Every structure is written in C-alpha cells, then in structure tokens.
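Researcher: Here's my situation. A collaborator sent me these components and asked whether they could plausibly form a single complex. I don't have experimental data yet, so a predicted model of the whole assembly would be a useful starting point for our discussion.
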Amino acid sequence: MPSKTCLPIVDEFGFFEVRLDSIGGLGAHLAGQILGEAAVIKMGLNALHFSSYGSEKKGSPIKSFLRFAAPDRQIRSCSPVERPHLVAVFHDALLKTTGGLDGLRKDGTLIINTRQTLEELKAFGLPGNCRIYFIDALAIAIEEKSRVNTAMMGAVTTASGFLAPDAVLQALSETFAKKHPSAVVPNERTFQRGLEELELVAEPSCDVIEETKEDDMPLRPSPKFGYLTAPIGGCITEAGSSYTRDLSASRSGFLPVLDVEQCVHCGMCDIVCPDLCFVWKQETSASDDALIKFRLEGIDYYYCKGCMRCVDSCPSGALTRQAEEEGFAERHRVVMFPEAKQ
Amino acid sequence: MALTTHKTRIGNDMKTTNAIGVRNKKTRKTEARQVVAFKSGNEMAALAGAHINFHVMGFYPITPSTEVAETLDEMKADGQHGIRMIAGDGEHGAAGICYGAAVGGGRVLNVTSSQGILYSLEQLPVQSGTRFPMVLNIANRSVSGPLDIRGDHSDLYFVLNTGWIILLARSAQAVYDMNFIAVRIGEHPKIRLPVIVSYDGFFTSHQKRRVQVFDKDDAKVQRFLGKPDTPYHALDPSRPVTFGPYMNDPDLINNKYQGHLAFEAALEELPKLFKEYEQLSGRRYDMLESYRMTDAEVALFVLNSAADTTKDVVDKLRKEGHKVGVVSPTVLRPFPITQVQRAFKKVKVLVIGDRADSYGSGGGNMAHEVKAALKDDPDNHTICINRVYGLGGLDFYREDAEAWFRMALETARTGKVKKRFDYHGVTPGHPDVVMKPVLPPITKEETSHNLVHVEQDPDTGRLKVEMEPIHRFTTIPNRVAPGHGACPGCGAFSSLRQFFMGIEGHVVVLFQTGCSMVVTTGYPFTSHRVTYVHNLFQNGAATLSGLVEMYHERVRRGEFHEDPDITFVMVTGDGGMDIGMGPTIGTANRNHRMIILEYDNQAYMNTGAQLSYTTPLGHRTSTSSVGPQQTGKQYHHKDTLQIMAATHIPYVFSAVEGYPQDFIKKAAKAQWYAKREGLVYGKVLSFCPLNWRTDDDAGTLVTQAAVDSCFYPLYEVEKGKTTITYDPETVGRRMPLRDYLGMMGKTRHLLKDGNRSVLESAEAEVERRWRKLKAMHDHPLL
C-alpha cells in the first residue's frame, strides 16, 4: 500500500507524538508496538516506539511512547515524548497520580478510558484547550473477552486522524495470530468497537471545562531529593516510607469487600495478602489473657491491588469480590497508619 | 519470531534512503536481498545472531540485554537457527562457556550488560590475550551501586582496557550491522581478537525502529561471512596445542605487543571492511561518524544514541545559521586517533559528553582520549569542554544538546570557558525537603510475642515447637510496610509475612538483587521498616556474614550500650539461588549465625521469566521456550536444599505459604538455631501468578498442589536428621504431578500427548527424589 498518508500536524522536528498512559498489565506497550508496526510496515510511514522501563511490576504505572514521521523523515531522537499531540489514558484512576496529562499540547487530543462523565472527571485538571474523547474500554474488553489495550488501539486510531484502521487491524491480527490464535477474533471485534465507540466529550472552545491558562501543561518533575539534600550513598532514612503510596490504580476494576458481620477474624486473609492491607485491632482484657480478642477492622484500599487472594482464603464468606464503584474504596478505606502523617 | 516478509516499500524515499538514513544511489548488484522490519536493538542483535548462525551462545540474563537470548530462544524453538544456547550459572560462568567454545574453533556469541560485564571482567583479557575471536553484545547499563537498571556507559568504560575490539552501534540498525562486521574483523588472520558490540541499554536495546535485515539465505550474505578459520583450536587431536601457558617476563610483554599489533592491523582493516559491508547492505559506516562537520566551528563528541538525538539539534541550529556538527565514533577500540584529529582540525570549541565519569581524573574517559588525540596535532587549538551526562539512564533530550551547543557557541565568541569539566543534569534539591523518619521503628517488645514456643528436646537435641492460632499473630507489626510495587498476588510477600511471624525481636535483613528487592526499595521510597542492606546476587551471603561478624565483634568490644540482640536474615530470589551459590556454600562452611531464606519462583521473574537452575524440566520460560524443536527447559531442577544439607549446617528447611503453620514453626526454629548454633538455610516455593500463568488468587492452591504432588516436599534437616514435616501420602492427599502441572499455564503443554516423554521424565525424577527423601526420613543415618 503505497503511502499517501499525511500526518495531520507535526512539531518543529517533523514528528507527531503520542503517549499512552497506563498500568503494567493493561497492554499499553503492546498497543504502542502494534500501532508503530502498522505505521511502518503497513502504511509506509516512519515511526519509533518504546515504553518507560523501570523496575516496577504488573499493576504499576507505565508510559508508552510513539513518534510518527513522514516516510523520508529519519527518527533519531530517542528521549521520551514530552510534548504529545495525543495522549491516551488507559485507566482513569491514573489521572490522580501519574502526571498523565503533562506536556499535552494545546489543541491536542486526549482519550480517557472511563465510565465516568466529564463533569465527574474534570476536577482532575483536564485541559480546556484540547479535544477530549471518552471510551468505556473496560466494558468492551469484558464483553468481548479481550483486553483494554485493543479497544484503546481502536480509539487512538480514530482520534489520530491518520492511522488507517485496516493497517492497524492487520498488524493486530498478525501479532495475535502468532502467539494467541484464539484471541484474534475477539481482539478484532474489540478493535472495531474501539474505533466506533469513542465519544467526543469536549472541544477546545467548549464551556464545560475552564480555559486552561497556560499554553501547555507542565513538563518533567524534579526529583524529590538532590545532591545537597539526599543522604550520601543512596541510603533511605525514612524507614517504611512506601506506606505513603496510593496503589489504588493497580486494581483492574475489582476489589475485595469485607462484611464484618460474617467475619470470624481467623486471620487467613492476612497471611495470604501480599500487599499487607488488613487492619486489625487487639481488644485486651485486663483480667484474663484468654479474653484477648483480635478483630479485623477492615482493608486499607490504598495498598490493595485487587489480587483476591484474601477472598480465596476466606472460610466464612465475609470477603467477596466486587466490581469497584467510584469512591467506594475511599469511603470504606480503614487507614492502617492513622498516627503517621500521610 | 518470524520476520515480516511483506513486500511493502517504505514510500518513494526508500529508493534513496535506507533504514538508517544513509544515502545510497541505487541498489547495487552487490547488495543482498533485504526486508523492512520494525525492530528493537535487542531484536536486531538476535536476528544478526540467527542469520550469522553462531555455533554456540553462552549467556546469563541481565537487563536490558536479556531480550537477545529470549528472542533467539524463541526462534530456536521454532527451528529458525541452529545455535547451541547455554544459560550459564552467572555471567562469569557464561564467559567461561564462551571462552571454551571459542577455543573449539567455531563462532561464539554472548550478550550482557552492567554487572554482567563486571562479573565476567577477568575472563575478557584471558580471551583477548590468548587471541580467540567471538562477539559479545553489551546493552550498556549503569553499574551498581546503588543498583540502576537503566542505561549509561559506566559498564562500557570498564572494558576499554580488556584488549577487545569495541564497535559502537548508535541505532537498532547498526546493532545488526556491527554484529556482521564484528565476526569478520575478529576473525581476520592479522587480528584474531574478540569483539564487543556496544549499544545503549533501553534507548537502543528497547526502542523499535524501522530497519532492514538480510534474507539470510542470500548467497551474498553467506559469502561475506565466510567460514571461521582458526590457526589453532582445541578439537584436533592430530595437532595437540597448549592454550594458555604460564608466562612471566620476558615473554608476556611480547604477547601483549602482538596484541597491540593486532589493533594496529584493525585500524587498517576496518575501513576496508566497512566498504565491503556497504556493498552488501547499502549502508555506509566510517570509523568516526561526522555529521555536518565540514565547516563546523562548534561540535559535540558523544557516543551512541545521544549522537543521534543531537543530529536533530544540529539541523535546527544550522537553520539558524550556526556552524555546528556532531561526531560519534563507530569504533572505540582501536581508537580512531587520526580521524579524531581530522574531524576537529578547524573546530573552535568542542563539548565532549561522557555518559560515565572516570572518578577523580578530572573528566570522563572520552574527554581524556579525545584531548590526548588532539594534543598530538600541533596545529590544533580546539577548546575542549567536558560534561558528564545521562547517568543511570537520565534521558538526554534535544534541549540538553542544544544547551551544550549554545554554551560552546558562547565560548567560541568570548574565548572564555566557565567550567571545563562538570556534570550536566544534576539536581540540588530543596533545602526544606529532607529525609526524616515517618513511621516509628518497630520495637523489640512489639515483636517479642511469645506465640511460638520452641524447646530443645533433651533426649534428641532437636527442637519441639508449638504455636498459637494464626489470628493471634495479626497485630504484630510487619517488618515490611505496605505500598511496595510487587505484582498483584505475588507470593514473595505473603511468604515473607509468614516467615517473619515466626521471628521475634530485632531483625536486620539483606536482600540480594531480585523482585522483592526491586519493588521494596524504589528510591526515594523503602518498604523496609527494619534495617535493610542490598548486595548483588552473587555475593549476598558473604556480605551478610561480614555484617554478622562485625556485630559480634562490636558486642565483644563493648561498643554498644546494650546488646541490640539482632537476628540476621538474608533473602535471595527470585529464581532461587544460582549465581551466589559459591559464596553461600562458603558462608555455610564457616557456619555464621544467620538465616538465608531463598524464595524460589522457578525462574528469573524479575527480568522477565528467564530460566534459572531451579526451573523444573519442561517448564516454559522466556529462555526455555516451547515449540516444535524444544519443549521448555531441557534439564531437571537443582536441589538446592540437598546441596546445602551437605554442608552440615545445623538446620535446613523447606516451606510453603499454602501450609502456614508448618512455615511459621520452621521460621521460629530457624531463629533459634541462627542465634545459638550457626547458619540456617530455608527455601520457599514462591507463587508467581504472572509467569506461572495462573489467576492472581491461586497462590494457596498451587503451592499446596506442589507439595501434595511431592514435587516440593515439606521437610527439614535438623542436625543431620531428615524429617518430612508433612507427608501427603499419609494424610491421603497425594496427587499426580500432572494435576499440579495442569494448574499453571507455563506447564500445561506437558499434558499434551506429544510431550508425554518429558512428563514421564519429570514424574520419574519427582518420584525418585521423593522416595529417597522418605528413606532419609525413615533412617536416622541417611
């Protein structure tokens, strides 16, 4: 397919840049790879793709970057995309924590996988100078028995204005055919729905979101400690400081819910929980040691990644797996370290 | 992994510009057939490996180079190449495998990074000094410590003096091309040296770009490669040779001079070889790549990917009318002195970027070498400025290159240099933001719960343990704080939780490199509420033994107001205990008072599930792929506990979180022995849902099945006496191995008819080890 594709807009270096903001395990890296492959192999464009690599694991924030260019434009810059034309947020919880909107260009495009309304999400600092699309990629993925990333690929394809659906579909099908032949059809359907079910919820001039004052969103943050302030040798003197981290975004739509009425306080949940989320209370009796009671107070959802091992271990049925509704975790969180400042 | 063999041309411009953008007039008749692909540097190293079809690859996985072995393994399972691939016990072992293979006269490949290159460092001069070619790809990464997995050149700078030829690959395409060049230059009869191909970790190793690769069956490619031809090798009994004699003065200097002459020859041969390769590929390389340098007055000298980033900035500043350019070597050893002198002849100001420091020398290695080259040109008056940048993978943005150019232009205008040597990209920090304790330290009282009662049986000398119900342990503070970044469902942390339930009082821990180290200490956060030390996973046991002895010595000298009464625990894993086995056995032989806890999740899951020696037969990992030509791991799993039992330490145990009471009691016993008698070695089978390919919540069931199938028996060896602490046969829970293997995606293929022989071999081995253990349980002398 000889390329007549034009990029709708490019920066001073000739690039159209995309950033996928996601959680490890949702497949943003693969999505980026397939989009890049489609552009290069199927559409004859030039492209570069890579993801932020750290030591964090499944369930941790990850960014995937794409740099598109005309066929004759070499791509040599290898630093991360900082001023994207298009940002796709794979999980709306990321809006709270990861700086997913940083650097998004004025008149750029923002896609968010969410079930919420614009009204509910705008508090997270959505830009007033961009086109904003919503898509319920999770629902599509669940219905089609595939994954969020494929629906998001569809959404990015549509919103990009230049990626050819056929090209992406071909690259996608080839990728799955190699490793998971049975996943080809569900993913093709998911992609198709992603293309179509994307909903435009705001445009630069609309009055739902206040006009963003600055031309652009902020860029890279500074490290918390520097060479004048960090203890030498890299040592960390804030023992246990990871308790301040909110890992809620690691959950993929479900959480364990405790019914205290049914709980027999046996402790089996506690010893299988990798994330150490269970908050207990000891009720002592001054007179009789045998009367000491250990009571499970609840779950600190800050740390819960939704693995459901506690539900599996629970002999009384007090713990159940439930779809996570917005705000539930905040309302039912039992704070593990109330004495320490969060 | 199959290549994309479609016929699409990359637009019209591909006729004049190839994948790396080097202009060539037309496809020459000498050019081999090529296809366009979208690949990363690691994938390109792997493809080059497959296309060259090296005889042997010795390797050991390390980020960010691991993907090369993974890709080759997957291709091997599909029958796409014939390389004999051997996963070493560590990089030192891998280098040994490679050296031995090279002495055998065939083509040899290795790939590593960072600590890997340092761990194998002593082997490198051995290989070059005895003049055996091979190809070693290094995906450059920062060296520890503190541990950093991202890219800089601190590993590369360690190999500068090893006597290896060093080729640099700025892009994924160049990684592929340099591997072909490396084979040829190393095997040149006047040279015969091993060759390193260095490319930037993550920037080049992981970024996917538009590239071209050969059709490997094209006769032109095979003609270019030729056949390896060695004057001496170790596999011809009709010509016995002594390799590696004992050689002192006056001879060694002559051996080294021969090496020096080989480098002189390489200086001459490389340009010729680049020309020959251009004819084959259409891609041109020079000893030194000069970009828009013809009339440049201001220039940058940087290695690898940063040079590519800089080119965009050169174009931008040229548009503004500034005469700027960038120079980057393709060959670092031999260092192209003449070309460097020529490139900078008319340059007024040169900024040399070093992605590693040569500490205390007043500059990075590249600055020293470039300045030394220029000093020998009497006509040169270039002002040199040196900046150390991009350490530990800190990105080098176009803005950084632009800032250097602007600084150099200013210097050219004024003739004044503000600072000749400095770091670029450091952060001072805000004086108000300092580290201070956030959670109170866990007190001895809080953890001295007395919920596990350990008593020594006066008759047998062995310990009797009883414990309170589990729920009574729930309010004891965790030594590990929540908020760590492990995957959902990770068994390492539930295992650690159960283990520490059995441990009372103060604890100091040492974690070897692995998942649980990485996810608990991502700077500036730590999940450790007790004092924690990290060391690399080849040396944790020795390190902790040193700390233990310092503790006892300081107590003996009365240096503590009060004996802090510390229990020392080393945690090793993921992947079990492979690379640190030597120091661990040494520590056991010395019988230090400490506990080593191994969590074995059956592969190196932290780096993407490569096989470890504890990976059982037939299991799928990313370096024991499953395909028509290969059914997972080729040999049985290491029996670490029996190795450790053979050191006759006081207490050895196995445990699993699916049987928590058994685990907690063993932890308490471990503490008793570690405080009084000596070393304890414990092993936990640790659930890894991501790479065992199970649901996140399957940990209890799967680990119980491992025990009930007798794959992973729960037992202890206490003062030489083996006791099975839970026997599934006596309680009627014994299950077939296949039922256990059927629970995990990584082993489900073993239940297919075609893999029956592998399954039967695994069953037989499990049964043999189990019966032997039963005999040891039954007989006090075994």
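Model: Some features of this prediction you could bring to your collaborator: The CA atoms of residues 140 and 306 of chain A lie 20 Å apart. The mean pLDDT of chain A is 90.
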